[in-house]
Amino acid sequence: MAATIIDGKKVAADIKAELKKEVEELKAKGVNPALSVVLVGENPASKKYVANKEKTCEALGIKSVGHKLPESTTQEELLKLVDDLNANPEIHGILVQLPLPKHMNEKEVMHRISPDKDVDGFGPDALGRLLLDEPGFVPCTPHGAMKMLEAYGIDPAGKKAVVVGRSVIVGKPLAMLLLRKNATVTICHSKTPDLKSECLSADILCVAVGRAEMVKGDWVKEGAAVIDIGINVNESGKLVGDVEFEKAKERAGWITPVPGGAGPMTIAMLMYNTVEAAKNSLKA
Ligand code: NDP
Questions:
Q1: Per-residue pLDDT tens for 216-225?
Q2: Is 224 within 8 Å of 252 (Cβ atoms)?
Q3: Domain 30-114 has what CATH class?
Q4: Ligand 1 pocket test: which of 140, 164, 190, 228 has the largest number of ligand atoms within 8 Å of its C-beta?
Q5: What is this structure's pTM?
Q6: Strand partners, 40
Q7: Residue-range domain boundaries for the chain
Q8: Can 30-114 and 140-263 be said to share one CATH topology?
Q9: pLDDT(3) > 90
């Protein structure tokens, strides 16, 4: 039987509708939620992501404060901007779009963002809290993956979850979130010897590798939930995920499409974190 297609656009739209109400409530209390988006250089994909984030902020009534800096910006200049944004009480969230130009030290920049404003959740405070199961900003893409499972009633408890990819922004935090929900989690990577059998053992298979359709349809267990995080352009110029969608959907129970799955959820969860940051400012 063909899989249920997990509609990330619809789940994201529902989350954004709730957030819009929360933004109105915050404004009534005198808090104007604001996200600062910093873009350094001319990377076309980054420009597109930043434009999407700004558009979504606008749609939800969140103030978006853009900082577009030239490629020639120095590390010191960027750190100074981050310091200024950290100190600005009217800014609740700070997002520095990655990747930064090669001459910059990304880690130093990420570590500099105040933990109270780290809405991407990439800094050591946010990631440490994730590991400690303490409240904090959860990285947006893995958070979005979990929200999609939840929206379709897929409870990870007692299930075997396999995460392919161990990046700090997707694979590792997603594995932690699945563990938090009581799945038995395996993390795979480029040195995993028999990836196919690992994938075949998964009740929940999450793939964040960045290789077009690398996970084949017959690597998917019958009835499994498949969350495809990958965004790739294949040889024909088509946008595809990391999973061979057409074949995988004949075996999976649920599957996310690319586009229209993890992508829209990532932006929705960024908005979620920004609203959380604005709410936290009321408590401060
Ligand atoms: P990274 O390149 O940081 O990590 C890729 C991971 O995949 C690594 O852990 C790597 O292993 C593993 N890997 C690479 N090749 C293989 C292989 N042959 N077999 C098994 N594992 C392999 O990527 P990201 O996590 O940043 O992104 C992954 C994908 O998700 C990309 O397509 C990216 O565009 C997409 N993405 C989508 C987002 C969205 O909003 N939908 C947001 C963020 C990312 P090792 O560690 O051993 O090198």
A1: 999 999 999 9
A2: yes
A3: alpha beta
A4: 190
A5: 0.97
A6: 69
A7: 30-114, 140-263
A8: yes
A9: yes
